[in-house]
Amino acid sequence: MATVKKIEWTNRDGSKSSAWQVRYIDQSGKRRAKNFDRKKDAEDYRVETEGAVKAGTHVHDRDSVTIEEAATVWLGAVEIGRNGRPPAEEGTLKQYRNHVSRHIVPRIGALRLNRLTTPRVVEYRDELLRDGVSRAMTKKVLTSLVGILSEARTRGLVAINAAEGVTISTSGRHETSVEIPTKDEVRDLVRRAAAWSVGDHGANRNGVGLGKASPKGRPSELEAIRLNRHRWFLLLLKCSILTGARISELRGLPWGSVDLEEGAIEIVQRADEKGTIGPTKTKGSRRRIVIPDDLRIELKSWRIACPKGPLDLVFPNGSGKVESLSNIANRFWYPLQVEAKVVGEDGKARYGIHALRHFRASVLIESRADIKEVQRELGHSSAQITLDTYGHLFDDAEANARRKKRTEGIASALFG
User: Fold this and answer.
1) 3-class state of residue 390 by DSSP
2) Does the structure show a pLDDT above 50 at 269?
3) Which of 238, 237, 208 has the alpha carbon at shortest distance from 225?
4) pLDDT tens for residues 366-392?
5) 173-202 pLDDT per residue, tens
6) What's the distance, Cα to Cα, between the start and end of the chain in Å?
7) How far is CA 206 from the centre of its chain?
């Protein structure tokens, strides 16, 4: 049982001082004491401490660390792999560091873990939203905070995870739907990319323009290389449209995972931002995707012309190594949209690099594929992720089907 007692002492200069001291024995049997200027604060701490000691969750200030210190420990653990898991990829680490440096440390970094309560986390969440941080980003930051406290708990730095259970909804009226190209836009993009692959580069001069023809009218060696690159991009584009694979999965796709006889692609690895080959994003990301026969034939032909390298990649750079994401985006994907006039009001490319993955999902849903089918095809770790991302499309497809059935029924009743 904790007690509150007023203590007094004489300072070196002869002056008198006093404080209200809470004395107690913690759950490990260690004697503890903490001083307060006000009796009320001491009494509040006594009540709080008695409950925490009884529950086995009390951590004294002297044994606690700040949230900033705990975040540093967590980032280090994630970098080498938490709880025996593989190390986080550089792109993931970059996001986590951003959460910590921009959103966590400036607001609550100095707070000690044992003083962080669930109500304080709720207040922190609301502060982020009031300061204009998007709901989606706030949700990610809270997830990182849960991870920080989870690692701290594993190391005995805190007894409870105060951030668990603090949620934020990103659905309903707050939801921002993914941007999905229309079928006409996708057709225009493929047509323009096909024109590039046979030498019609139009206005594209971003490092991939025309070379001069040889005296006999045949493409020069430089132009032949460029044509091969545009053929590479056309096939990358088609694979993205027809498989819904992540761009990291296509950048890391080896020929050994392409069944050119049966017509299928096995997703077993991916390339990260630095071009390092590693495992798929999640266990559910490992999957087999059937491809149409036309694409199978094109890939079979492409294998002969494909740049060779030790990684034996389907879509490598000119040296046979992993192609960088920035090259794909800035030299091909964005210029392609501008030429195909798939642009916003500012005249710039309308869609990001993952738009074709969303397009694939929309086509599957339109074809009446169910949630589990879409989940498997896209390699989501759970059906909930599929529903959170594309739920509005399922609603639209089902509503349209009901409307059509109702209309057909009315027409049949009226006109036989």
Assistant:
1) helix
2) yes
3) 208
4) 888 888 998 999 998 888 888 777 877
5) 545 567 899 999 999 999 999 999 988 765
6) 85
7) 29
- Tokens 């920080």 identify what position? 148
3-state secondary structure of 264: strand
Secondary structure (DSSP) of 9-63: EE-TTS-EEEEEEEEEE-TTS-EEEEEESSHHHHHHHHHHHHHHHHHT----GGG
Closest CA to 58 of 34, 80, 40: 34
- Please give the order of strands across the beta sheet that includes 258-259: 258-259, 264-267, 287-290
Integer Cα distance of 307 and 291 in angstroms:
22
Report whether pLDDT(353) > 70. Answer: yes
Nearest to 121 by CA among 93, 101, 144, 96: 144
Residue 403 — pLDDT band, cuts 50, 70, 90? low
Residue 208 has pLDDT above 70, yes or no: no
CA distance 361 to 181: 11
**Residues 103 and 141 sit within 8 Å (Cβ to Cβ):** yes
Contact 291, 365 (CB under 8 A): no
Pick the CATH number of 183-206+219-393 from 1.10.443.10, 3.40.50.11540, 3.40.50.10240, 3.30.465.10: 1.10.443.10
Residue 237 token pair: 């584009």
Residue 95 · residue 273 · CB < 8 Å: no
Helix/strand/coil percent split, the chain, to 5: 55, 10, 35
3 state DSSP class of 307: coil
DSSP code of residue 178: P
Nearest CA to 194 out of 339, 346, 388 is that of: 339
| Residue found under tokens 């584009």 | 237
The domain spans of the chain are 3-55, 67-155, 183-206+219-393
Beta bridge partners of residue 264, listed in sequence order: 259, 290
Residue type (1 letter), 373: E
The phi, psi pair for 23, rounded to 5°, reads: -115, 140
